[in-house]
Every structure is written in structure tokens, then in C-alpha cells.
UniProtKB/TrEMBL annotation:
Residues in Alpha-ketoglutarate-dependent dioxygenase AlkB-like domain copies: 113-246
Name by which UniProt lists this protein: Alpha-ketoglutarate-dependent dioxygenase AlkB-like domain-containing protein
Annotated signal peptide: none
Pfam families, alphabetized: 2OG-FeII_Oxy_2
Annotated InterPro entries: AlkB-like (IPR027450), AlkB-like_sf (IPR037151), ALKBH4 (IPR032857)
Top-level taxonomic group: Eukaryota
Region (Disordered): 1-36
Annotated source species: Tetraparma gracilis
Biased composition (Pro residues): 7-33
Amino acid sequence: MCASPRPASPAPDPGPEPAPPRAPVPKPAPEPSAPGGAAWWLLGASRPLLPPTSEPLPGLLVYEGFISEEEERLISRGMMREAEPAWKPGTFNGLSINKRWGVHCNLRDRLVSAPTHPLPPYLLETLGPKLAALGHPKLRGFEMNEANGIIYKRKLGHYLAAHCDDRFLSREPICNLSLGGSCYMTYGRVRSGSKKGLQSAGKEEVKVLLKPRTLQVLTGEARYDYTHGISHGDLLDEERISVTVRMSPVTRKGAA
Ligand SMILES: O=C(O)CCC(=O)C(=O)O
């Protein structure tokens, strides 16, 4: 059986209206302090920009999850679908499958000449604004005009020979994105006074884990004083793809 409703009695006087709750006051972003006191990613910025996930070597800025899975698919598909420039097996810096866009760096004659295949929109539009948004002082004015893609296949014995990107033809920051698979990249300090030029000092090696969607920005010591390479055994998945972008101003004269 249902209870019948009681007759309504007059409502008690609620008294004065309580004050509405105050909206929380957002904390202002810390302002950059004087040089020397502020982290580099605060310098020149009115609010903190994205700090790296880690800096395993001086000047090696690692940003995990730099691009989304959707952006990763967009870049990979773009690279795979375009007919030109074509993928070609390469042996220049190890064994891999390569393509390149943008200006041509002639390492022997120290010349940078106009591009045959300009950088594609799927690279420029995805990476350009994101690199600028990092707010790193070394990336100010960075206009990528050279890029290369590498496919590593473990079953084909692929690897990247230890090397330093050209010190003169390309500007300081080298930006490198990992797609599709993980690897360890080995950084080896260049032995000073070596007659053979670049050689890694065995004891001064640092292995850096590069997961898919990780960006590395090589600056300073990591750019100039260390070689970087990937041994075959450090490819952790059957396939890994990388994209490296640089700024290499066109020159008509030799740069060295
Ligand atoms: O595969 C990588 O992540 C590095 C590629 C590289 O060092 C290069 O293209 O010069």
C-alpha cells in the first residue's frame, strides 16, 4: 500500500542568502627570473613551455610523446604513400632504407644547393609548429629545409653507423623523431686528438632509449662532441622508422 502525501506545512524562513562560493584564483605562471637563475625553457617566455622528459647528455633533449599516435600515423603514411622521393637501400651511414627531402648537402665540396623535393606538408605542418612551441632558445629561428627518413628492418641486419652530423653545413639543432619501433641509440664521446678524426671512446658511451613518438633535439655537447649510432642488436622491434630534420642554409661557396 502507498502512503498518501502529508499536507504541506509552511516552509521555515531560510534566513540571509549564503555567499556564493568563490572561484579559485588561478596561480600566475612563474615569470622568468634573471639569467643564471631560470631554467632555459623559461628564458624569454612569459609562461613555462614544455621541458624535456630527460637530458641524458648535456645538450641532448629528449621529449617522449612529442607527437600523438594520430600524427605518427599521418607522417608514416605520408612517407610510405608518396612515390617521390623514393625509398632506396642505403649504405652511407650503415645499412638501412632511406629517402630524403629538401636542400642537397654536398659534403665533399662543402656546398648546400636548392632542393629537388621540398619538405612535404605532412612534415612541415606537423613538426614545424610543435618544434616552435617547445620554446627552446636553440630552436628560435629554426626553419627546417632538409630532412631524411630511415627505415630499419631487424631481419635485414640494419644499423646506423656512429657519426656526427656535419658541423658546418647544418645549423646546431638536429631534430630527430622515432616512429613505429624502439631502439637504443649509443652516444660516444669523440676522442680528442684522434688521428682518424671521429672515434668513440669506448668507456664514454651512453645508451638512450628511443620509444616511438619520441623527439630528440641534439644541441651543444651532444651535437658536437658525441657521435650517435644504433647497433643492430639495439633495434628492439622488427621495424623502426626515423625522420631527422635540419636547417642547412643554401650556399654557393664552400662552407669550410
Ligand atoms: O635513426 C635515427 O634515429 C638517427 C638518424 C640519423 O642520425 C641521421 O639520419 O643522421
